[in-house]
Design brief:
The chain is of the alpha+beta class and 392 residues long. It has 2 domains: 249 residues, no CATH class; 136 residues, Roll (Ubiquitin-like (UB roll)). Helix content is 65%, strand content 7%. Strands 2-1-5-3-4 form a 5-stranded mixed sheet. The longest helix has 36 residues. It is elongated and about 80 Å long. It starts with a helix and ends with a helix. The C terminus is likely disordered.
């Protein structure tokens, strides 16, 4: 059940992330239509945001946000090592910043209607609020846009680059990942200018904006406790996650194990870490396109000796490798954790293996047979000797 749960968690996190990315993309593209006109923005918002403004799409979006947040915090809490690639560290930091920065916007456009059913805040009204009444929130919105899209893009690129269709679609998708937020910010600015001009030339619109602003301010005493409660719960949750992470990082800090890679290269780290963690903490070059998420298979190793020192293969590892029930020789370095000394492994792909190695591993494995990362021909002749060196 625990092994199956790992696949369920990975799938749920991916699907919820894709759903949220679709919502964010629709939101940003609606703003980008502001480059054309306010009417174009309103039309784009009606088309692109309509699927979420109904009894099915709305709750589904809320569920996806909750699932993605909880599973994101779970992923941090269960880490056993702080060894991270720079892009992963950036994605985590940006992800943790989203909730506090986005909460005021959610309260304004969503929760406010619960206390004031007569309060209709569309894109034009919201733009008027940001550009006339609360310019500081306009800056905050620009910041949130950049943070959310950067966080999403890192995850999307990491997932899409492993797919077989990426070589054909990558040249089109990658520029879009950069273009969407830029066009959105430009549309936000142009639409803001148009709204400010409308406020000066249309007294009726200006009066309606003022009325809605006053109505929004009148329910602030109802919204502030919710904001404070959300902030408190989030701070406690993040604090708890970081505390759990700290405990896991310090666990078994005096129980060290060794991993031999051949050619005299030996990694040493805390017991219970994955082979990939041992490699990273010991500065041993090791391929890992998906950053240790068990998706790409580029960190795979062949166990030459000491298979009993590793944890059993779980469902995620078996799924990625396409391994049978009795497979113990080839393992994913990011999933196999080291519990004892005597492990001797061969890295099957070079450290600079890119996403193509995940899409077509057979090509990379074939090219590595003539001269593998760890000089496999020499290792296979002396597994006992190297394993003994690792234990020493």
């Amino acid at each position: 059940m625990r092994m199956s749960a790992a696949l369920v968690i990975r799938t749920a996190r991916l699907l919820s992330g894709l759903l949220l990315s679709a919502f964010v993309a629709g939101h940003l593209l609606s703003l980008a239509a502001g480059l054309i006109s306010l009417d174009a923005l309103s039309t784009a918002a009606f088309v692109l945001m309509g699927p979420w403004a109904n009894p099915v799409g709305g709750p589904l979006l809320i569920l996806a946000a909750f699932v993605h947040l909880v599973l994101g915090l779970h992923a941090i809490a269960v880490r056993r090592s702080a060894a991270l690639r720079r892009s992963d560290a950036v994605q985590i930091a940006l992800g943790l910043a989203i909730v506090p920065l986005l909460t005021p916007h959610i309260l304004t456009v969503g929760v406010a209607r619960i206390f004031a059913p007569d309060l209709d805040i569309g894109f034009r009204t919201l733009l008027a609020f940001y550009w006339q009444r609360a310019p500081a929130y306009a800056i905050q919105q620009l910041t949130v846009v950049v943070i959310i899209w950067t966080h999403a893009s890192i995850g999307l690129h990491g997932w899409m680059s492993l797919k077989s269709w990426w070589p054909r679609a990558g040249g089109f998708v990658t520029p879009l990942l950069f273009a969407v937020p830029i066009l959105s910010l430009l549309g936000f600015v142009e639409a803001g200018k148009a709204v400010l001009a409308l406020l000066e030339t249309d007294p009726a619109f200006a009066a309606e904006v003022a009325r809605r602003w006053d109505r929004l301010q009148s329910i602030q005493p109802d919204l502030m406790p919710i904001r404070d409660a959300v902030s408190t719960v989030y701070i406690v949750a993040v604090g708890t996650v970081l505390a759990v992470l700290a405990l896991r990082l310090f666990a078994n800090r005096n129980a060290l194990v060794s991993v031999a890679y051949g050619d005299g290269v030996v990694g040493r780290a805390r017991q219970g870490l994955s082979i990939l963690d041992v490699s990273r903490l010991s500065n041993v070059p090791h391929a890992s396109v998906c950053s240790g998420r068990g998706r790409c298979g580029t960190c795979r190793v062949r166990v030459i000796a000491g298979a009993g020192a590793l944890t059993p293969m779980d469902e995620v590892e078996r799924w990625t490798l396409g391994a049978g029930p009795g497979e113990k020789t080839v393992r994913l370095a990011c999933r196999a954790r080291v519990l004892d000394d005597g492990l001797f492994v061969e890295r099957l792909l070079p450290p600079d293996a890119d996403a193509s190695a995940a899409r077509r591993p057979q090509d990379w494995l074939a090219s590595a047979q003539d001269g593998s990362v760890d000089s496999a021909s020499e290792q296979t002749n002396e597994p006992g000797k190297v394993a003994a060196e690792a234990r020493a």
